[in-house]
Each structure stands twice: as C-alpha cells, then as structure tokens.
Amino acid sequence: MQPAIDSERFWQAVCERDAGFDERFVFSVRSTGIYCRPSCPARRPTRDNVRFHTDPAAAEAAGFRPCKRCTPDGDSPAQRLDALVAAACALLEQAERPPTMDELAARIGLSASHLARAFKERTGLTPRAWAEARRQQRLAAALPQARSVLDAALEAGYSGTRALYEAPAALSPARRRQKGAGEQLRYAIAPCPLGQVLLAATPHGVCALLFGDDAQQLETELRERFAAAELLHDDLGLGAWLGEVLLQLEQPERAASLPLDLHGSAFQLRVWRALTQIPSGETRRYGELAEQLGTHPRAIARACASNPVGLLVPCHRVVGAQGASGGYRWGLSRKLELLRREDEAGAS
C-alpha cells in the first residue's frame, strides 16, 4: 500500500527545505522536468508547477529526471558528507602520526575548510581535537593493565610521557594507572516513580544520577563508570539531596537545586549547560540546539547520550524532528513519563 500524499504538508516541507521529509517523498517541477528532495537547496519553484511523488521511481515513471544538485535517487549531500567524515575519523584512528588538516582533506577529497566545517558539525570537535580525544581514550584503557605509564603512553600513540603531564587533569596518569586510589564517591539508592534512582556525589557535587530497574544494576553501572574511585554507600549522608530529586520527580515545578560536579569534553559541557537552560514543560529539537551551538544534530544526540546526570541535566527535554521522542539512555518509557509529568505540572 502506497503512503498517502499530504500535499499541503509536503509543500510546507519543500518551502522549509525540511530534510526530515527526504525519505518520505520527492517533488517534481513541471517547468524543468526534474525531481528533487524536499531539502534541495535550489531556488523554490512555483507551487502550480510542483507535483509530489512517493519515491524516485514514481517520479521517473512520470517522466522526470533526478536533480544533479540534491541527487534524490541516491545518497543525499548530507549523507555523503557523513560518509566522508566517517572516513576521516578512520584515517585519524589508523594514522601513526596525526595528519595535518590539508593532508587529511587531500585524502578525503574535500577542501580543508569544507572538511573542517563538516567534521565539527558532526562530531562537535575539530579533527585534531577528535584525534587527541581518541588518543586519551586509548590511554585510559591501557593504563590499568600497563607495566608503566610510559608503556601505556606508547601503546596509545604518544611518543613519550611529557605530553601527559603538560595538560591539567583531575588525576595524573600514574594515579589513573592505579585506578585512582584514594578517590571516594558517596552514593545512595531509593525507589522512585521511574523504578530505582541512584545519586552519586564527590565533595564538589552530584556526579551521577542514574535510573534503572534494580539497585544492583545501578551499582554495577556506577562501578563501570567510576572504576578509578572508592565507592561508599551513604543513604543517610545523601538523604537530603536524594529527597530533592524525589520531590522534583513528584512535583516537576519544584526543581532540585543541587551542585553538580561534571567532567567531560569542552563540547559536552557546553551541551549539558544548554540543557539545564530548557525550562520544565518545554522541549527543544536536536536541530534547534545544534543551530544554537553551531554544530550538527548528531553531535548533540551523542552529548545527550553521554550525560551522566539524568533529570538535573534534563536531556529528556530534547526531542527529534516533528516531535518524535528521540532516544534516552535510561529508556524511552522513562523519557515519556518525565515529559508527561512536566507537561501536566505546567498545565495545572
């Protein structure tokens, strides 16, 4: 059964160049004899000349040929850029020596400026910063098993250990290799309307707020995330903070005001800060936040997925295009329930 054609909504999508409709239909222009994607950047045609088709085959059967600019019969320009950025990431991952921007652009087949812009839109980082972040991740993975910091540095792709100590960090490489002996996190767990909630804190503030189905699952997730720390179960000491969280869940208009101790990349911290500015009862689309922060919706989605503090950093208030729910690291049903509660609180 062919999907229905909603001419008024489809024309609106063409006027807005809405890429969210690219997989739903194509439109043809009688005066030119070509058909395009809704997101085609070409000059908008006259409405009387436009017809809508369910797919490229239907447009071609009607005698139209594909636009060479938006290639509606193949990968979109955005999809091709996605693939090129993925290829650039693979080259950066495999390179013994980080290539310069010009070298990387030449390998990919784009100008250096075009690659830099596309790369940052999709990852939130420059190629150099992305390569360094990956190298740091390899170092973090190698340190616990390595015989020495030097061995871990060489395995991660560093030429020595000097660079490891030049950049400021919460833990030195040697401390990280010892799994952060002496670091202590307190945590508390309680039942809540979403199942179970775990709150963990350093002396500086909340570092994790996790939702799950049972306490053991939450403790396991906390140990995996903070493997370098000593964990202390402290329901009594964290009772007041946990009480504020539970109150916000029951009464969303009474937002908990707790100090946060968040660690992430500069880009992640920018996204998380933007999330805290979305009022209860409101939502933002990934695309809106991407435009606000000068990046790509996929980069926003990845930063939301890496958010360790549910509710207090409200990534549940970010939704997909056309109001689609989007993902949520603690389960879509919890996201929908949080939004429902906030919506009802705002309406009352």
Automatic annotation (TrEMBL):
SMART domains to which the protein is assigned, alphabetical: HTH_ARAC
InterPro entries (alphabetical): Ada-like_dom_sf (IPR035451), Ada_DNA_repair_Zn-bd (IPR004026), Homeodomain-like_sf (IPR009057), HTH_AraC (IPR018060), MethylDNA_cys_MeTrfase_AS (IPR001497), MethylDNA_cys_MeTrfase_DNA-bd (IPR014048), MethylDNA_cys_MeTrfase_DNAb (IPR036217), MGMT_N_sf (IPR036631)
Keywords associated with the record: Activator, DNA damage, DNA repair, Methyltransferase, Transcription, Transcription regulation, Transferase
Residue ranges occupied by any HTH araC/xylS-type domain in the UniProt entry: 85-159
Protein name stated in the entry: Bifunctional transcriptional activator/DNA repair enzyme Ada
Source species: Pseudomonas knackmussii (strain DSM 6978 / CCUG 54928 / LMG 23759 / B13)
Cofactors (names): Zn(2+)
GO molecular function, one term: DNA-binding transcription factor activity
Reactions listed under catalytic activity: a 6-O-methyl-2'-deoxyguanosine in DNA + L-cysteinyl-[protein] = S-methyl-L-cysteinyl-[protein] + a 2'-deoxyguanosine in DNA; a 4-O-methyl-thymidine in DNA + L-cysteinyl-[protein] = a thymidine in DNA + S-methyl-L-cysteinyl-[protein]
Gene: ada
GO terms (BP aspect): DNA repair; methylation
A Pfam family reported for this protein in Swiss-Prot or TrEMBL: Ada_Zn_binding
